[in-house]
Amino acid sequence: MIAVRNALLLIGLMSGAFAGAAEVDGDWSMPAKDYAATRYSALTQINAHNAKGLHPVWSFSTGVLGGHEGQPLVVNNTMYVVTPWPNTLYAFDLSQEGYPLKWKYRPDVNSNALGMACCDAVNRGAFYADGKIIYNLLDGHTVAIDAASGKELWKTQVADLRSGETITMAPFVVKGVVIVGPAGGELGIHSWLKGLDLQSGRVLWTARNAGPDSEVLARPESFHSFYDKGDDLAAHSWPNEAAWKTGGGPVWGWISYDPQLDLIYYGTGNPGPYNPEQRQGDNKWSCSVLARRPEDGALIWAYQFTPHDNWDYDANAVLILADVMVGGHERKALVTFDKNGFQYTLDRATGELLAAHPYVMVTWAKGVDLKTGRPILDPAKQTGASKGQVKDICPSLEGGVSPASPAAYSPRTKLFYTSTNNFCMDWTAREVRYLQGTPYMGADTPYHAGPGGNLGSFIAWDAVNGRKVWEVKEPYPGWSGALVTGGDVAFYGTLDGWFKAVDAKTGVVLSKFKVGSGVVGSPITFRGPDGKQYVAIYAGIGGDMALLAGDVRSDDPADVRAPPDYLKTLWRHTSQGGIVWIFGL
Amino acid sequence: MVMLRCKSVALIGVLIATQLTAACVRHQNAATSASENASANAVPPAVRYEDRIWAGGVPPPSGGLYSVQANSAQNAQDGEALFNSMNCDGCHGSGASGSVGPNLADGRWRYGGRDEEIFNSIFYGRPKGMPAFGGLLGQGGASLLVGYLKSLPKPDTVPTESSIESP
User: Fold this and answer.
1) Rounded percentage of chain A residues whose pLDDT exceeds 90
2) pLDDT tens digits for A358-406?
3) Cβ–Cβ < 8 Å for A80, A128
């Protein structure tokens, strides 16, 4: 009898295991859903036929008015939400009606960080690993919180606020290592990437993004840049030590990982200052993608999208790992929509450039030379203090795609989905002095609308052929991340406060809802405890576009803003907010 | 404030004071180079704000760190140069018209708009991210900036009211 019972139990366990294996993962445990950073969920319940029935099923005010970038996580029937400064962490119990809080974590975050963060006090989210929620505080700390209890397990200072370093990126966890980097490209930081021990928070390694090989962790036995040869590339491509030590190259975007190659990929931001004549040379590795080993931080390869950046073209956009056909062959590729207006396809094993297609209007370069990997510059668009005002540079420094709005990739449609911006700019640079803890910029850069009459759009992009498959034109710049699902529905939000579901194949808008404030966050989808599929999104305008939108705040009588000429009416559609929304059928 | 700090330290102990003398001298040099008008009068910072509520109806004692005549055309011009060279425009925008930091040209003040209040904001910093420039600028430099900000013409309409496009 006991034997029979055991046998039945075994069968039960096995069938459970098989069902589990066949069932699609309904959680969302890391910022971009998976290591390849696709923001693709295989959930199919919500599809192009029924998405018109999407409606809000729950909402929650975070109590914080600020740019709600990033995305919630859903793990074990719990939803985790990180707010902008002061970086409160909420844990909602999805198994109970009304999703009450299980707990709330309130870190003591230095308010001086508000003056060091260049572009609003945003946070791009948390990472779940080994029963812990890991995230960064604006004032330069990384924390690990017990996912079940909300107890702080460790807190490590990783960035130096006094030298202009803040942290806005979401950490990345792989092989027991927590990987973090700083913001501060506008404050002359000496940027880095750090690996922390997941269990203790101890810093295991620090790799600089500029400086001699010993600091950059570029070892002759392991580092092979496809295009650039020689020692100390990241020091010799600057005029002197003082320049690379204040040269920016921040890490405020996203990280991806290829388990087969055992490489992490991250992008670096603009070099400082904005006056390029103060930093002759390529300024490596600013505006670059770097591939490192997660265990020790060793640099394996690097590729610079915008050498000697003249236009604030940070390369912090998401680096999506996908297999892409190039010249009739499937390549293990890394695909990104750079701020500089080109969609790049790189061989992710070597850093070889396979393709570069303009995805918005580009005037600063005529193209990218696939032999040298370097952009073919338009000399008339070179900026500098001696050049006076340089006009009509496209895209603007906000990027053809903002790194704050990560793209998605569907293995079903083989298409990439992303918000875009349609601004151009003029650029007047001037000499500027480095003063620790103050902005190190030196440029006046007014924007104007690009061609077409719309300031933004949401597009589906074919990276094989470098073409736009469809486009939803938007009146305002696109600042939301993208999500695409196994039901062939793509999701995004707009600065004027709409949350939209579109047919991933055709771009037809299937449903939309006004969420109360402009969207700068990224949607996620998950399966709830009731077995139903849901979609979550933050509302809460912020980042650069909140600073430029005119009068979108009402909580500070000393801060009333007139809208700029290029964004005259956005303030009529949104005000600051901080709302978590969940939609269902 | 630089002098105040040095003096009070001297009261604590000769040894520490000796160690800090070099630092004090350096600070004073920076202050004097920022402006020839830097007077080092060792008084508490201005804390008496006439328009505040006084607990118990008792006004706090008034002090005066701010002691330089700000409202002259020359001071405003020198202050404008400092506004750019000290990277103030990086946060407050060119012409102090606002960016990530608040607009300083619209007559609205988060921490008070009296000369000494603006001075204190610059000199000591403010807790929502305004760095303290007193060490770099000295009293003279900070008061030149006050002069510049006070010289900016105030708009006579609220920006929101004037930005609705006529149909």
Assistant:
1) 92
2) 999 999 999 999 999 999 999 999 999 999 999 999 999 999 999 999 9
3) yes
CB A174 within 8 A of CB A265: no
Pairs across A and B, CB distance < 8 A: 85
* Residues linked to residue A409 through DSSP beta bridges, in sequence order: A416
DSSP state of A82: E
Q: What is the maximum span of chain B, computed from C-alpha positions, in angstroms?
A: 74
pLDDT single digits (tens) B98-149: 989 999 999 999 998 888 889 989 998 998 889 999 999 988 999 999 999 9
Classify residue B39 as left (phi > 0), alpha (psi -120 to 50) or beta. beta
Residues B110, A559: C-beta atoms closer than 8 Å: yes
Distance from A118 to chain B by nearest Cα, in Å? 7
Please check whether the domain covering A26-54+65-327+344-584 is classified as CATH 2.40.50.140: no
- Round to whole Å and give the CA distance between A504 and A458: 11
Is the CB of residue A563 less than 8 Å away from at least one CB of chain B? yes
CA dihedral B96, A517, A267, B88 (to 10 degrees): 10
Residue listed under structure tokens 């990472």: A127
Contact A83, A124 (CB under 8 A): no
Longest dimension (CA), chain A: 91
DSSP B60: P
Task: Give the whole-angstrom CA distance, residue A403 versus residue A482.
Answer: 12
What length does chain B have? 167
Q: Would you list the domain boundaries of chain B? A: 2-48+62-151
Pick among 3.30.70.120, 1.10.760.10, 2.40.160.40, 3.10.100.10: CATH of B2-48+62-151? 1.10.760.10
Instruction: Please tell me if residue A189 touches chain B, with a CB cutoff of 8 Å.
Output: no
Contact between A311 and A346 (Cβ < 8 Å)? no
- Active-site residue flag, A398: no
pLDDT confidence of residue B116: 86
Determine the pLDDT at residue A155: 98
Instruction: Please list, in sequence order, all residues whose beta carbon lies within 8 angstroms of the beta carbon of residue A454, skipping any fewer than 6 positions away.
Output: A422, A473, A474, A475
Q: What is the pLDDT of residue A9?
A: 44
Q: Average pLDDT for residues A514-524, to the nearest whole number?
A: 98
Q: What is the pLDDT of residue B62?
A: 60
Domain segments of chain A as ranges: 26-54+65-327+344-584
pLDDT at position B157 over 90 = no
Interchain proximity A439–B158, CB inside 8 Å: no
Distance CA A243, CA B99 (A): 26
Catalytic-residue membership of A186: yes
In this predicted model, what pLDDT tens digit does every residue of B25-52 receive, in sequence order? Answer: 333 333 333 333 333 334 445 555 556 6
Distance CA A113, CA B93 (A): 19
Tell me the average pLDDT across A539-553. Answer: 91
